[in-house]
Amino acid sequence: MAGSIAEIKKQATEKMAKSVDTLKHDLAKVRTGRAHAGLLDHLRVDYYGTEMPINQVANITLSDARTISVQPWEKKMVQIVEKAIRDSDLGVNPATSGDMIRVPMPALTEERRKELTKIVKHEGENAKVAVRNIRRDANTHLKALLKESEVSEDEEKRAQDEVQKMTDKSIADIDKLVGDKEKELMAV
């Protein structure tokens, strides 16, 4: 059983922050029409028998709003990196000239924008459900403390109010992240 009100609140705060961070990370993977270097972060390549993130074997920069430039540090990695990008879930078609790989970002169709907006909303809802589950668990632990007469009713009520405030703040953060991503998706 969780020991004290402070511990319960601390755990709930950490877990809620983690849910918001996870959403932030997941939304960063949703591709808008614009290029950003982080789009390739989740891609891995075989580097002398070890799976490595692309950003550890190549320099990744933006050449303009719609193009990512990837320059592998070793000549023999150019084709491996290009293949990893082409075979990825990003739906892009990299072009290599010499030891520089250019990754143009295709413009999104209206239909694709709407699809991605639905995905973003769904991710947001999942994050909210996670936060509400954390609130429920925290409140269950608080009620158990009250039942075992380890805290007064006032203390338990005050702690529940604070857990609710943390929940409201986390949900507001989630709504803001989802709203920002939707705006980014719909901007042509």
From TrEMBL:
Positions of region (Disordered): 147-166
Name this polypeptide is given: Ribosome-recycling factor
Organism (species): Usitatibacter palustris
KW Protein biosynthesis (keyword) present: yes
Homology family: Belongs to the RRF family.
Primary location group: cytoplasm
Pfam family, any one: RRF
NCBIfam families reported in the protein's UniProt record: frr
